[in-house]
Amino acid sequence: MHELSIAHRIVSIADEAAREAGASRVNRLYLRLGTLSGVVREALEFAYGFATTATLLEGSELVVEPVDVLVRCDSCARDLPPLAPERLRCPECDAPTPQILAGRELEIRAIDYDTASPKPSTAPHVPSPVSSSTNPYSAES
Ligand SMILES: [Zn+2]
């Protein structure tokens, strides 16, 4: 399953970033997903649950932000959405529009996480060094 390996990659990137930021757990992961990214949103959302197991993202929500396709038409000198994601032609003049400006995104936009709350005295109790005050008893007689 294509989406599972993608989910694993996204999760490992986010997990690492969250750890570096001192996060204790991730609540939400915001992902920009282009129509032309080749990733099926529903499959990715399904795979996300498996991919997050035993990471900081376990139990978090994947928020997918779809990115529509935008192409550049040289004839019209305009940036506009194509006829259809599968038909990269200008909707105005029907010229082919090979220049894709947006729609291939597969990127983490934001990570919503909790930082470890400072709990009072969670440091392990360190016993004070035993003072060995054994006075050498000098027996004098
Ligand atoms: Zn055009």
Task: Describe the fold and architecture.
It is a single chain. This protein is α+β, with helices and mostly antiparallel strands and 141 residues long. It has helices at residues 2-20, 41-51, and strands at residues 23-34, 61-67, 70-73, 78-80, 99-102, 106-115. The strands form 2 sheets. The chain has a 3-stranded mixed sheet. The chain has a 3-stranded antiparallel sheet with strand order 4-3-5, with no helix packed on it. Helix 1 (2-20) packs across helix 2 (41-51). The longest helix has 19 residues, at 2-20. The chain starts with a helix and ends in a 26-residue tail after the last strand. The relative contact order is 0.22. The model has no long low-confidence stretch (mean pLDDT 88). It binds zinc ion. The site of zinc ion has 7 residues, from loops.
Tally of helical segments: 2
Mean pLDDT: 88
CATH architecture field: 2-Layer Sandwich
Which kinds of small molecule does this entry bind, naming each only once?
zinc ion
The outline comes out as elongated
Helix content: 10-25%
Instruction: Please provide the count of β strands.
Output: 6
Name the CATH class: Alpha Beta
